[in-house]
Design a protein that fits this description.
Elements (H helix, E strand, L loop, with lengths): L1 E6 L2 E6 L12 E7 L9 E7 L2 E8 L53 H11 L1
Antiparallel strand pairs: 1-2, 3-4, 4-5
Length: about 120
């Protein structure tokens, strides 16, 4: 399993230390722990888990302060916009089986940058 964080074409890869097992009951999990003090764009540690066992970890020095570009999307099982990583081509699709369930847990405190939200709203008008 591989996770790639792309910050302005500076990529951080987290690679699992073991292969994803075959079977119907495989749980894949990514966790980001904020370690930096910045309110927005803080650094942190990214972790990969397979069936609740940690199989990869890497420091991420900086994260995006605002929003991703309007042309990007949040895809599951494919990447319909520009690739995050140079390790696959645009339009790539997952072919390793069936994805039966996806759970997104946005833990922690939500931060809202009111000035940035106002700028985005004004540009849309």
């Amino acid at each position: 399993m591989v996770y790639c964080y792309n910050y302005l074409s500076k990529r951080v890869y987290i690679r699992s230390t073991r292969d994803v097992p075959n079977g119907k009951r495989v749980k894949l999990h990514y966790q980001f722990e904020k370690t930096g003090q910045e309110k927005y764009g803080a650094s942190g540690i990214g972790r990969l888990y397979i069936n609740n066992e940690k199989v990869g970890e890497e420091q991420i020095q900086r994260t995006l302060k605002l929003r991703y570009s309007f042309g990007e999307s949040f895809d599951i099982g494919r990447d319909s916009a520009s690739p995050v990583s140079e390790e696959y081509k645009a339009g790539a699709q997952f072919t390793g089986g069936n994805i039966e369930k996806v759970v997104i847990d946005l833990a922690g405190e939500k931060h809202i940058d009111h000035e940035a939200e106002t700028r985005i709203t004004m540009k849309r008008q």
